[in-house]
Amino acid sequence: MDMGRGDLTDVEWERLRPFLQVSNGRCGRWRDHRQVIDGILHRVRTGVQWRDLPERFGPWKTVYERHRLWSADGTWERLLQQVQAAADAAGEIDWDISVDSTIVRAHQHAAGARTDPPPAPRSKGASGVEHQTETPWQSLVARLVEVVREVRAWAARGVGSPVSCT
Questions:
Q1: Cβ(30)–Cβ(24) below 8 Å
Q2: What pLDDT is stored for residue 93 in this prediction?
Q3: Structure pTM?
Q4: Where along the chain do its domains lie?
Q5: What's the N-to-C CA distance of the chain in angstroms?
């Protein structure tokens, strides 16, 4: 299978794979996890409708059902916790907390105009510096955080129906 933009890298996949079940115990073996997870990541990243997933991810309904099942049974939350713990053990998570500066009152004399020129806009193809130094653990954690955010938003909207096997 060709790797597309946004798919798990080989290193990310090797770090995630040990945390995945081979079977759900009810319906036999799962369809290829990597292909399905790449489809879910594509959906989360692009917002495409499930039925419009590219064919390279397999049947859209399989991808949708696995995402729905894993959302309902807490698999995404568990995966995020396990990957965060492994990344933390590898020393690749920075647990520093940042505070939103909008809650800090500035002195009245601090509201001056800018004295230096604004930065030059980046070209379209340039990638952010923060992503160039991201490790595979950090990248994998970030991807899982996005999926878990969608799952939580999905749950908050009350979306759901009976779970079936795929």
A1: yes
A2: 77
A3: 0.69
A4: 7-17+29-94+136-157
A5: 20
